[in-house]
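Can anyone check this?
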Amino acid sequence: MARSSPFSARVRSASPRRSSLLRLERAKEFGATELVNAKSNDIVQAIRDLTHGEGAHKTLDCSSAPDARAAAVRAVRSWGTACYVGERGQVTLDVSPDILRRQVTIVGSWTFSKQGQAECAEFVADHNVDVEKLFTHRWKLEQAEEAYKLFDTQTTGKAVILPS
């Protein structure tokens, strides 16, 4: 989990099972000011500590890991929103304390709308985000199998497969 200063998001969290030191270091490179290794810390408590016990306004789970999905819901404040974008997977929640009594909204998002893409591009331009720095690996099409095996380890940044 990391807190970021130059961007609008205050808290970034990683799956407790898939968090890696490399990803925490990459978060730091992109401006995170506080890092918490989710493998060795209670991510929900860490977020609550960083938000004076309130919880995050919004959380985002990209992992599909059951523990991370539950943590995304439990780490939001009352009236907060948890968003899932990772494909597949399950989550088990205790509906009353996790959702109903705190008025939590859960949303899923599979892709950006045209408006969302435009807003993202505008954010990148306005904040001079070095998009090239996001990509840690570039592969040729004939290396796709090798690329997917590495990407499945959840230890890399973003990767791109280019035509040969």
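Reply from J.R.: I decoded it. The chain has a mean pLDDT of 83.
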